Amino acid sequence: MLVWACAASAQTNETSFTFNVNQWVPDANVNGLSFSTNLNITGPYINSVTVGLNISGGYNGDLYALLAGPNGGYVVLLNRVGISNNASSFGYSDHGFNITLSDSAADNVHYYQSFDYSLNGNGQVTGTWAPDGRYIDPMSAPSVFGSTAPTTSLSSLNGVNVNGTWTLFLADLSVGGQSELLNWTLDVVTVPEPSVCLIGILGLGLLAGMGKINGRRE
């Protein structure tokens, strides 16, 4: 029997950033846009991260967005939302997002039209959603999207030092319409030290049996 006991520091620090961009995303261009910022805040270890995207116009099903944190962590925020083997091969045609992406959200943004969603007066999708998380080529066939589960999450950034370079990448991968990134936000909760998990092992012979784990549009 394994008993996991995890302890995290009760002292947290929340810091929020808004990055005003106001740039058009090149249409049907895999090079997209890349925005990097260097953070130097207290903590310094990440306890949780949420991201906001304010994107106007274009077609939502064209967009791919990825956030890369310091020390190699990353999460796929958007990956051609709406594409699947049961829907249009172009994804959803709504015009923009004004959303928060959080691992605590109940519904994944990739299939937002399958849930109770709303549009603001500018036609942007609103609300709080779980990141897409599908770490696949955004030019994959619809059947690949339909059979792929999310494998990246914002929690993959937890436990590492918050300070360093953060990069948001955003691309439009299908012809037709043009999106504009108005701004994006980053909300980071940090703790003085990473959480610690202790494993208690009960049962004769269990320890001896365990090995070390390393492990378009026209």
So what's the CATH class?
Mainly Beta
**What is the helix/strand order?**
EEEEEEEEHEEE
Strand content: 35-45%
Our count of helices gives 1
The fourth-level CATH homologous superfamily is: Galactose-binding domain-like
What's the number of structural domains?
A: 1
Number of strands: 11
- Indicate the low-confidence ranges by residue numbers: 1-9, 197-218
Structural class: mainly beta
Global mean pLDDT = 86
Q: Under the CATH scheme, which architecture would be assigned?
A: Sandwich
CATH topology, what is it called?
A: Jelly Rolls
Largest sheet, if any?
A: 5 strands, mixed
* Spatial order of strands in the largest sheet: 2-10-4-7-8
* Helix fraction by DSSP (H/I, runs of at least 4): under 10%
**End-to-end distance, in Å?**
59 Å
Radius of gyration: 19 Å
The rough form would be described as globular
Task: Give the topology.
Elements: E1 2-7, E2 13-24, E3 29-39, E4 45-57, E5 63-68, E6 74-79, E7 96-101, E8 125-129, H1 142-147, E9 164-172, E10 179-191, E11 196-201
Parallel strand pairs: 7-8
Antiparallel strand pairs: 1-11, 2-10, 3-9, 4-7, 4-10, 5-6, 5-9
